[in-house]
Amino acid sequence: MKDCSVGTELPPLTIEATPTFVVSTALATRDFQDVHHDRDAAVQRGSKDIFLNILTDTGLVQRFVTDWAGPEAFVRSIKIRLGVPCYAYDTLTLTGRVTERDGDDVVVSVSGVDSLGEHVVGTVALKLGGE
Amino acid sequence: MSIQEAAERIAARGESAPRAARDAVNQAMVNNWVEAIGDRNPVYVDEEFATKSVHKGLVAPPAMVQVWTMGGLHWTRASDDPLGAMMEVLDEAGFTSVVATNSEQNYFRYLRHGERIEATAKLESVVGPKRTALGEGWFVTTKTTWYVGDEAVADMVFRVLKFRPPGAEPAKAAAPVLRPVISKDTEFFWAGLREGELRIQRWGETLRHPPGPMPPDGDFDAKPDYVVASGRGAVYSYVVHHHPKVPGKDLPFVVALVELEEGVRVMGELLDADPETVHIGLPVEAAFVKIDEELTLPAWRVAR
C-alpha cells in the first residue's frame, strides 16, 4: 500500500504546453473559443499567445492525482482556481501533497506553476482503491 | 436596468431546461481526450483491465463530464441559458472579454459508455465591478447539474471573469475631463498621443519631459525635435487618489510617475492597477485614452 498519510508529497508532473498540446486539449474538451487555437485572435484580445483552457486544467489535475493514486481510485471532486495564464511554449509543473485522510478518503492539494507564477491551485478529493 | 438588476432577474428564472449532450458517452471522444491530456489510466481504455478493476467495466474520465455537454463549434446558447444571458448583459456594458477563473466539480459516480447526460444551469451570483489584473470586470458564478434520467451524476460551480480589456475603456466623451493647455512647444506631444505615439522632446543628445521652450544649455539657436519612446518603463513613484471626485474618473485611481527606459519620467493614470498591488518598480507600458477627436491622454497599464 502506498503511503497516503497527511503530508505525503506526490511525484511532480511536468507538462510542456506546446501549441499542439494547447490546441489538441482545447479540441478534445470541445472548447472552440478562439483564444485556445488562434494566436492572432488571442493577441487581439490582449493575450500573449494561445493558452490552456480550464477544462484541460481540470483534466490535468485529475491525471496528476490518479497517476499517483492508481486506476482503482474514485475521484469524488476536483476544485480548481486559475491564476496566471499558461501560454503556449510555457512549461507547467504540478506538485501536490495529501492534506486530509479519513480511512480511504483522501484530499490532495495541487498547485501548477509556470514561468509567470501560479497557474492553477486546487484540491482533489478521492477514495483510494486497493492495490 | 443596471447590471445588478439584470442579474437578479436572470437568477430569479432558476434552472434552465435540461440540455442534452450531443453524443452519448463514447470511446472515440474518451480516446481523443486521454491522448490530448496524456492520461494513461487503463480504466478508460483497456476493457479487460477495467472489467477486473473496482469499476467493473470501462468508465469515462470524471473530469470529462463538462465535455459531453459543451456546445461545439457552431453552437448558439439556448435562450434560457443563464450564463449566456448574463454574458449578453455584460457585453452590452462593454465587458467584452471572458476568462474562466474557478471550476468546482463533484462526481457522484463515473459515467459509462452509452449514457447520454443532460445539463441544467442556474445563475448563482454576479459580483462587481472589480479591478483585476486583466481590467475592470464582473465575476459571474453559475451552477450546473448533470443528470442521467432523474439521477444527478455530477455538478459544478463555475466562475468566469467578464472584463473590459485595457485600452477598450469607453470614450468618456460625455463626461467632462480636465483639458490640458496645449502650447506651440507641447503640440507635438499631444499630436503624438492622437497617433498612438509617446513623443519625448530631444535637444541634441538630451531628452526632456515635460517639453519646454528653452534648450538645456541655453543655446538660443538650438531647435528641438523628438523621439518616439518605446512606451516601456517602471513606476518611479505614485499616488492613489481617493478624494475629492475628479471629472471623468472613477475613484480610487492611481497616478504614476513612470521612468521610461529612455530615462525620462512621464506622469499618467495607471489604468488597470489594483491600488493594493501597485509598487515602485512595477513594469508598465504606455496606454492612450482617447477622450475625443482632439484629445488623447497619456496613461499606463501594467506590463504583461
How would you describe this protein?
- The complex is a heterodimer of chains A (131) and B (304).
- With 131 residues, chain A is of the alpha+beta class.
- Chain A is built from 3 helices and 5 strands.
- Chain A has helices at residues 19-28, 39-44, 54-69; strands at residues 13-17, 74-82, 90-102, 105-114, 117-127.
- The longest helix of chain A has 16 residues, at 54-69.
- Chain A starts with 12 loop residues before the first strand and ends with a strand.
- The model of chain A has no long low-confidence stretch (mean pLDDT 94).
- Chain B has helices at residues 3-12, 27-37, 47-52, 65-68, 82-92, 187-194; strands spanning 19-20, 97-107, 118-132, 135-148, 151-163, 199-203, 206-208, 225-228, 232-241, 253-260, 265-270, 283-290, 296-302.
- Chain B has 6 helices and 13 strands.
- In chain B, the strands form 3 sheets. Chain B has a 5-stranded antiparallel β-sheet with strand order 1-3-4-5-2, with helices on both faces. A 5-stranded mixed barrel of chain B has the order 9-10-11-13-12. Chain B has a 3-stranded antiparallel β-sheet with strand order 7-6-8, with helices on one face.
- The model of chain B has no long low-confidence stretch (mean pLDDT 91).
- Chain B starts with a helix and ends with a strand.
- Chain B is α+β, with helices and mostly antiparallel strands.
- The longest helix of chain B has 11 residues, at 27-37.
- The chains are: A alpha+beta (131), B alpha+beta (304).
- Strand 2 (74-82) of chain A pairs antiparallel with strand 2 of chain B, so a sheet runs across the interface.
- Chain B: This is OB-fold domain-containing protein.
- Chain A: This is MaoC family dehydratase.
- Chain A: It comes from Amycolatopsis coloradensis.
